[in-house]
Amino acid sequence: MIVGMSLTNGEISGVAADMDEGRARERDRRYVWHPWSPVGGADQDRPVLVSGQGYRVRDAAGREYLDAMASAMNASCGHAHPALIAAAERQMSLLPHFDLSVGTHLPVGRAAERIGALLPQGLDRTLFVNSGSEATEAAVRIAHNYWTNKGEPRNRIVTFAAGYHGTTYVAQHLSGLPTNAVYGGEPFPVTRVRPSLPPRELRRPEALPVLVEEFERAVLDGTPPAAVFVEALLNVGGGVILPDGLLRALRDLCDRTGALLIVDEVFCGFGRTGRMFGFEHDGVAPDLVTMSKGLSGGYVPFAALTTTEAVYSSFAADPLIGGLRYGHTTGGHAVACAVACAVLDVIEERKLVEASAVLGEQLLAGLRPLLDHPEVSDVRGLGLVATVECARPEAAADLVAGARAHGVLLRRQGTAVMAIPPLVIDESGVAELVRVTGQALAAL
């Protein structure tokens, strides 16, 4: 029974049928195409989730799990947060949305103002879209058009080969990950930096000059690039922590060559790494920032791109409309903007950024002893992102399966097993996460 609702007998029967795990699996098997999954894969292994509260979720059979995936890495404020639900309901009752190319609405201005106040001075012009992939598409288009607007066309982009910026065509083209290979002609040139050091060594100070040299070579060899486009932490690329000072060195490199610095904060932004944004660890100001995931807490699809007034004002030179030729039907959706403002309130009121730093240290300290296991090659982390890198993909898969059997949902990226809990997790949740991960590893 849903609180506050009066259901007929037929509706009650329907809810009960939906809660039947076997029926739900059969319907899922028959009609749903799951992304990033083998066709005809082991659908019996997927949890059929029906509810959540805080940092826990429950499946159709009544089993409870600690959500160490933060849903899709975006449940920053946890599940069923009353303030976020109320914000969505309130805005839906007023105005769900309106076309921003024709008019505007109150939540979009509030959301843009709030984001601008969090970013370094000068980053205050925000475009809203629906996903991190769309934010990437917009960022690349803006970078290319910026140089055209200046009368100095540039179109080459420099990225990490193990970077991940989404799965639209342009976003996949930026990546060198095998799963992101695109088909057809290359829409623009991309130079992908493949570090000569393994992931477990990249966070060390001695990796900095090596990486800087590799990026300098990528930027300086060839036509001047339009932009350098990097994540603050390589998420899908294996939960890889980069050395202190890399973004600062890339900022200097971009300043010398004129290239724009684009930082992808889709995963790291809004507290995930123990700072509001991942680039804050190096104290730099990018030219463009892409954001999503934690911005709306997973309650509604939402993403943003923020840039400088210099980049924005260059579009007055566009010969057709004197502005940006890019947008989506539901970009800047009023409900999503209202929820995002509520998310920022929760982050501030509960001091979730500070909590991410403190609890992240506890999580990493608890997981470090796993390095003694022969199947573990590295343990690393930053804020509430912790990675246990296994020696073999099979060991990583078994670790995830074992943790799930004991009530913890972990995320796997190849040989990397990642713990990414909601920022609202507490000390007891961190202790449980550490204990169950250790038990699952010991059972391998």
From TrEMBL:
<keyword id="KW-0663">Pyridoxal phosphate</keyword>
<comment type="similarity">
    <text>Belongs to the class-III pyridoxal-phosphate-dependent aminotransferase family.</text>
</comment>
<dbReference type="InterPro" id="IPR015422">
    <property type="entry name" value="PyrdxlP-dep_Trfase_small"/>
</dbReference>
<keyword id="KW-0032">Aminotransferase</keyword>
<dbReference type="InterPro" id="IPR015424">
    <property type="entry name" value="PyrdxlP-dep_Trfase"/>
</dbReference>
<protein>
    <submittedName>
        <fullName>L-Lysine-8-amino-7-oxononanoate aminotransferase</fullName>
        <ecNumber>2.6.1.-</ecNumber>
    </submittedName>
</protein>
<keyword id="KW-0808">Transferase</keyword>
<dbReference type="InterPro" id="IPR049704">
    <property type="entry name" value="Aminotrans_3_PPA_site"/>
</dbReference>
<dbReference type="InterPro" id="IPR050103">
    <property type="entry name" value="Class-III_PLP-dep_AT"/>
</dbReference>
<dbReference type="GO" id="GO:0008483">
    <property type="term" value="F:transaminase activity"/>
</dbReference>
<dbReference type="InterPro" id="IPR005814">
    <property type="entry name" value="Aminotrans_3"/>
</dbReference>
<dbReference type="Pfam" id="PF00202">
    <property type="entry name" value="Aminotran_3"/>
</dbReference>
<dbReference type="InterPro" id="IPR015421">
    <property type="entry name" value="PyrdxlP-dep_Trfase_major"/>
</dbReference>
